[in-house]
Prior knowledge:
Elements: H1 21-29, H2 35-42, H3 46-56, H4 59-71, H5 77-97
Helix pairs in contact: 1-3
Amino acid sequence: MKKSHRPETRVKNPEPKMGTSDWIIWAAWADRITFEDIEKKTGKTESEVIKIMRRSLKPSSFRLWRKRVNSQSIKHRKKFEYSRKLIRSKIKKEEYLD
């Protein structure tokens, strides 16, 4: 097979294969992937994802993740869309003031 002259792009943390528990953990840590997206792709509900995370992570990592998920409102689609609306309204207000 002939090698191409294009350089291979390597990602520090590549996305795991879809459907594995590694993918679920990766998606749960990702900020832009909501629980609804995880459920749509894997069929796992939020409570099932929490159980997988509790089982797979060290206790301190699990607490850190839970604190992060609870403080960030973007892991739920409805809260994410609401936060985006707030950001857009702030930008529009700043444009009017300038």
